[in-house]
Specification:
Two copies of one chain form a homodimer.
Chain A lengths: L5 H16 L22 H10 L3 E3 L4 H18 L5 E2 L8 E4 L10 H8 L6 E5 L6 E5 L2 H17 L9 E3 L5 E5 L29 H12 L4 E3 L12 H14 L5 E5 L4 H4 L11 H17 L5 E4 L16 H12 L5 E5 L11 H9 L10 E6 L22 E7 L15 H8 L12 H5 L10 E5 L14 H13 L5 H13 L3 H22 L30 H4 L5 E2 L16 H8 L9 H4 L2 E2 L10 H24 L7 H33 L14 H6 L13
Parallel strand pairs in A: 1-2, 1-3, 3-5, 7-8, 7-14, 8-9, 9-10, 10-11, 11-12, 12-13, 13-14
Antiparallel strand pairs in A: 4-5, 4-6, 15-16
Helix pairs in contact in A: 3-5, 9-10, 14-15, 15-16, 16-20, 20-21
């Protein structure tokens, strides 16, 4: 067959030789190993340090978690220095490393250790040398604390030539319950999942334990995540039936040694759907008894079951309001069922209705503030970082600080529903930090979102942070290799919200790509600017919720019709006079839900941070910005800066080719090309669309938006991932 | 937290140590590498042979396929002998291996080679030493032929200590178009797919080329598969729109160097759904023009596009009969559109309707036989192996041999919709062979299904065989590790249907697990009995279509209601008098569709092979079988033998632990436990159910069926894989 001309042939040959060159490390570096790669240590001094550290390791056989620690150290030693570790049960004089609790070793029963351990809690650990400086000790109150210590040690020996200088270490988490929320359905689709499908292979459970379950637990334990909600908040009652409880138990058994508790989402109408009752009224005795019996059944199989996560009376989900009961009535009923087992109920504050005339941004506060003092001790109200829905940028949610008698949990979204999903490189730590570090001024002048949720502002002993998972069955877990950095960052911030984004990026880069300084700095720069880049090319200056309908993939500033609060027009309110949502006292007055210090500053467009400007203000196209530019020009510059930034990232990445294995390098390279196209699509769509209102010229010094608005409006993505076609 | 008692704790520790021991080879042997593992050769003599064979390899740079050959040889050498191959362009005296066509090398332009090449066609190859026995040559008419030769060479050097003894080789495929049919939907669900989801990540195409695409092409090329239909026969017109053609093109570009052509399924109503026409009538000029233009558009992007596969007027799919036209009218319209490009149309014979009163088993013949002589040259009628639907055992389809003027293709199902899906170990080569080797007695007394479809009975120059893929995005591609053997067997039989099941198993075992003789024999025994085992515990003695409704997972002999031809009662016809479907002249007379030699033999229950007995006969429960047992007892023995056979397989597998890496061993071990449960579930359900008709005791010497029929009837599998919940 002679179909090709010679020139085409040459191009194809070239393409193929290139593609093949990317395959050489096929089984070595495809991203599956995450940040637990343990590549051979090339620096000899470092290698000797590690050899001597692992020359004789003492750890007991008394806990499955200790078996896990041994396994992980064994993997690390095999990878880093190609050695088997001699493990022992007994402390002798030649021991290099000893790991355990004071119950395990008399050597740990010193008053100094006892003192230190008192303040690190169940999950904390100490890493320090013995007095003679010959033996390193990882000491903790529980085996899981030791596991966290071991993972810390593995992290620093991979990242630091002089890791000994970091010792002694005393560490404990600031938040007690650090939980991934999987929006995974029983049919293995994942709502807002962009990395393939659910890693839970329900059909083959409980008999078949996929290797992924074990590696998932390892990855979570390595960054301190200690809880996982297996199922979607848009819940399915079937998961509470006996056959599924047996499957969940199989997972819980795998996860337990890694300190990872399982939780399930509870569909509020379960008593009707699988219980045969005629009501799910939380004050009905039969309903209450049904949930108690259900909890008993679950805890019989899974004694350390974490509890229930509930989305009720939100986006069509059933809830207590169906029976004219309050969210507190509903949450407390479930809380009573799990309380005997120390279980908790996590109740989402993400409620809004298009039938309520008030600004959607205000509705959670309207609903929940009056219920302060009404929730049981083991109820947490889980609040999204911002008042709308995981936008590229939102101000913090006004509920933080507004409920002093209720335990609040923070819900972050690791999966990037609105930030380009899995085709975009966006490092989310700066977004998470922006929320955590936000000053709430309540309950005290010093309060931040972080101190509200870690409970330190309220003397809480238990606290919850949740991240909506970006994990799927794609080989590299997260679709985009850099999506791994967001899973990592969530875990690290859940453990210690005081860590900086830069520090976390630095850790992740070392573990993911190695320790070359030039490479590390370059990747760090890419990561640190990536979030601002996507804000700029999609929703700058406080714009929000202007994405495509349903799939939320790409721009849709023109989206209108149907439920108003699911349109873009509801949020950007562009017209011939200007753009933005007036949430001051002349508008919806959402600002009144914040502390006075904030509402005062943000009420005046001159003092409102420009990054939130159009979130709170409707301003004329000619409004003069801090730069001196009129708003329209400034908007154009932001969009243009966004896409230019992606171009820079592409260039910086291209320069890293020699530092990174072919396959992972090429994966990111291909997706950066896609991201650049998508950034241009966002910019062109939004600017062409908003220009129909502003009627102003594009500034001459930006790349002129090309294409035709109608073309962009007519693009359709019927099988975009993360939604089911029938949704 | 002290939740566990000590004994539980010990069990958990034990479990964990066991689980961890399975992780040691995590990245080495998870099944992803299929039969292309290239493990280090331990035998020194063998290793020296390979080193000398690869000491200097000459191959040109003139084709992307040659780049692919170099890449594959390079991988193999790296894996097998840990060497880089020195490649060269020029034949010199020290060359060990030279690969190419006579166009590439003058050395190949001998009359002997010329002679041999004349009979091997586009895909065949010669492997032989030069006269001085110093240089091995792989010579072919096309680069793809050389690729097949290279894969053959790699296969034999891994399996045979004295591979030189097999030379010279002259090989060519018996069937020209060896095609996988993917029933993959655009939302990445896979109809009747049990290995996760579609490997086609449509959303990220064309920009992102997943490594899997390349490895998929390698795997197919290695066994001679040269075509792939990317989309489900229950087709979606969207794949024919410009954005999807661009995505398909990206895949075609990846696959081309591997000799793998892409095909698409064509939804018959596409001219309406995406073309804006008001009809899809195949005799309408606008419709015909629309398809011609569509074909032009596709071929402009994909010059070697294979053609269309069509399911029309079947199970709700649109087709020419919607317009009172014939299947020939529909197929010929599409055939005319692709004919200018040497494309083909593959039109499925799988048609039946519950509105037609005749036996479903007869309907394909009723429809298609009268259309013989009416199809264009480039139309193939694709016929399933049996007349119902991929049952564990069916007699061959009576259409084979019944149409002498029409090109028939064989459709086999690699994915095991009715054979336990991905939780069961079933080696399908014996099933495929049973069909291929069936004597049709038409067109000649010597004819078999194989000679009908390879075209040798009709002097056809082109021939088609199709296998419905079992491939998904599970790490090991096929869900069950042994599912790989069925992909492999399909490819090998498509190339050469004369190969024995044993020979193919032997090859696959060597490549998958190594060459230890004891191990090989043991695995071969497991594989060779596995298919009869599933027939016995699910549908022995010619029973068929008695599985659960919808999901087709597990037993459902009681299924009734709705479309009669989708019930079990339609097929087993059990009553107080007996069991089985009378397809003799006293019944549906389906037997009349076969050649007289067959219908005569099978019409008499005494001469009908017992394996087909209840397919063709309704017989009293007391009917005396060849064994002397009454039918009821014999039925019970078959079910019991089936489950005992699974027990034996489990035992045999357990004995192989030391021969197989931990992870793959454990994967299969877990699934064998599941399979044993499922076998028992099948046996108990069917025997308890049929006993309600036979009213006879179970023979005393079998394990007595336990459990309660109502319990089995009430089992539900709402999220069984392979179907969408909405189906």
């Amino acid at each position: 067959m002679k179909v090709f001309k010679n020139s085409t042939k040459q191009i194809l040959i070239g393409l193929f030789i290139f593609l093949l060159s990317c395959q050489q490390t096929l089984f070595a570096e495809d991203g599956y190993e995450l940040w637990l790669r343990y590549p051979p240590v090339e620096n000899e001094v470092q290698s000797e340090h590690i050899k001597s550290l692992f020359s004789k390791v003492v750890i007991k056989d008394t806990s499955p978690t200790y078996a896990v620690i041994k396994d992980e150290l064994g993997r690390a030693a095999k990878g880093l220095i190609n050695k088997e570790i001699p493990f022992s049960n007994l402390v002798t004089s030649d021991v290099s490393l000893v790991i355990g609790t004071p119950t395990d070793f008399n050597e740990f029963k010193t008053s100094e250790i006892d003192n230190s351990l008192r303040s690190v809690g169940e999950d904390g650990y100490l890493i320090q040398y013995t007095e003679d400086a010959k033996t390193l000790m990882i000491v903790s109150n529980t085996p899981v604390g030791a596991l966290y210590g071991a993972f810390y040690l593995l992290r620093i020996i991979q990242s630091n030539l002089q890791f000994q200088e970091l010792l002694p270490i005393k560490a404990s988490p600031k938040i007690t319950d650090r939980i991934l929320n999987h929006w995974d359905n029983l049919d293995r689709t994942v709502e807002r999942g962009y990395a393939g499908f659910s890693i839970w292979d329900w059909h083959k459970l409980p008999g078949y334990i996929d290797q992924r379950y074990i590696d998932y637990a390892r990855a979570n334990a390595s960054i301190g995540i200690n809880g996982t909600v297996l199922t979607n908040v848009n819940a399915n009652a079937l998961v509470l039936t006996a056959p599924y409880i047996e499957k969940v138990k199989a997972l819980a058994d795998v996860f337990r040694p890694y300190g990872l508790k399982v939780y399930l989402t509870a569909r509020f109408s379960s008593p009707i759907e699988i219980g045969g009752l005629e009501t799910a009224d939380p004050l009905n005795d039969e309903v209450r008894a049904w949930w108690k019996t259900k909890a008993d059944e679950i805890y019989k199989s899974i004694p350390d079951f974490g509890g229930f996560l509930v989305k009720a009376n939100s986006e069509g989900q059933p809830g207590p309001q169906n029976y004219d009961r309050t969210h507190a009535d509903g949450a407390n009923m479930l809380a009573a069922a799990v309380a005997p087992y120390n279980g908790i109920v996590i109740w989402r504050a993400f409620v809004y209705s298009h039938e309520v005339p008030d600004d959607r941004a205000k509705q959670a506060n309207n609903e929940f503030e009056p219920l302060d003092r009404e929730f049981m001790e083991n109820v947490f109200i889980q609040v999204k970082n911002g008042p709308i829905d995981f936008q590229p940028r939102e101000p913090f949610h006004p509920l933080f600080g507004a409920m002093s008698k209720t335990k609040l949990a923070l819900e972050l979204q690791i999966t990037m529903e609105y930030l380009g999903q899995a085709t975009n490189l966006v490092y989310l730590a700066p977004l998470f930090k922006e929320c955590l570090d936000s000053k709430t001024f309540r309950p005290t002048k010093q309060s931040t979102v972080a101190t509200v949720i870690d409970g330190s502002g309220f003397n809480q002993t238990q606290s919850v942070i949740a991240g909506v998972s970006n994990i799927g069955n794609d080989r590299n877990w997260t679709g985009h290799l850099f999506g791994q950095s967001n899973w990592y960052a969530f875990g690290r911030l859940a453990w210690d919200h005081a860590l900086s984004s830069e520090k976390i990026a630095d850790e992740w880069i070392s573990l993911t790509f190695g320790n070359d300084n030039k490479m590390k700095q370059s990747i760090s720069k890419i990561m640190m600017k990536s979030r601002e880049s996507v804000v700029n090319y999609s929703t700058p200056l406080g714009l929000h919720h202007i994405m495509g309908r349903g799939h939320h993939y790409g721009p849709g500033p023109w989206v209108e019709g149907g439920r108003p609060d699911w349109t873009s027009l509801y949020y950007h309110r562009a017209d011939s006079l200007g753009i933005g949502f007036d949430r001051t006292s002349t508008g919806s007055n959402a600002l009144s839900q914040y502390a006075p210090e904030i509402s005062q500053e943000w009420s005046d467009p001159k003092t409102c941070p420009e990054k939130y400007l159009l979130w709170f203000h409707h301003l004329p196209w000619s409004f003069k910005m801090n730069s001196g530019n009129p708003l329209w020009d400034e908007l154009c510059y932001h969009y243009d800066t966004g896409i230019k930034s992606v171009g820079e990232i592409k260039k910086q990445w291209a320069e890293l080719k020699s530092y990174i294995d072919h396959q992972r390098f090429h994966q990111v390279e291909m997706l950066l090309n896609t991201q650049e196209k998508e950034a241009r699509w966002w910019r062109n769509s939004c600017l062409l669309y908003f220009q129909t209102f502003s009627k102003m010229e594009f500034p001459g010094n930006i790349e002129q938006p090309a294409g035709n608005l109608e073309y962009y409006k007519n693009l359709r993505f019927p099988y975009a991932p993360g939604i089911r076609p029938s949704w």
